[in-house]
Amino acid sequence: MADGLTKSAARNIFYGGSLFFFLLFAALTAHSHWYMVNKSTDNEGLTESVVAGKHIWEKNMCINCHSIMGEGAYFAPELSNVWERYGGHQNPEAARAGLAAWIRAQPLGTQGRRQMPAYDFTDEEMSSLIDFLEWTDGIDDQDWPPHPAG
């Protein structure tokens, strides 16, 4: 027997290790996809209004200032739990009215504070955007954001 590692043994270790880690990567990718589709996404609540709200979110580039579940900019508050912060679980009508009033009141004009631009949303657009924000609150975000205030 040779004192060191032979070429064929090294080749077998390389191919075996490569195959093992490729299969591990494929399994983890499949599991991640399965988890996202079956566990963390609220497909039942994904209505046309929620989809329209997502389009409004994208069209107005809200993600350039806000974040949802940590994705986006950190210039303005995290919005994945804004429905909860406005009391949507206890009083959905008041939460909808409060969110709509807040968005329509922008910009506040307070000196020294970051300002949200004014948006001229129709009632239907506002309702869809709020439906989208409500839907994001229902996603299993694994306790994100870490602070309730976003």
Q: What is the CATH architecture assignment of the largest domain?
A: Orthogonal Bundle
* Structure annotation, total helices: 5
* Shape verdict: elongated
Helical content (DSSP H or I, runs of 4+): 40-55%
Strand order of the largest sheet: 1-2
What can you see in these coordinates?
The chain has 150 residues and is mainly α. The chain folds into 2 domains: 1-40; 48-137, Orthogonal Bundle (Cytochrome Bc1 Complex, Chain D, domain 2), CATH 1.10.760. Helix content is 52%, strand content 3%. The protein has 5 helices and 2 strands; from the N terminus they run ααββααα. It has helices spanning 7-40, 48-59, 82-85, 92-104, 123-137, and strands at residues 67-68, 71-72. The protein has a two-stranded antiparallel ribbon with strand order 1-2. It is elongated. The mean pLDDT is 91.
What is this structure's SSE topology?
Elements: H1 7-40, H2 48-59, E1 67-68, E2 71-72, H3 82-85, H4 92-104, H5 123-137
Antiparallel strand pairs: 1-2
In short:
Helices cover 52% and strands 3% of the residues.
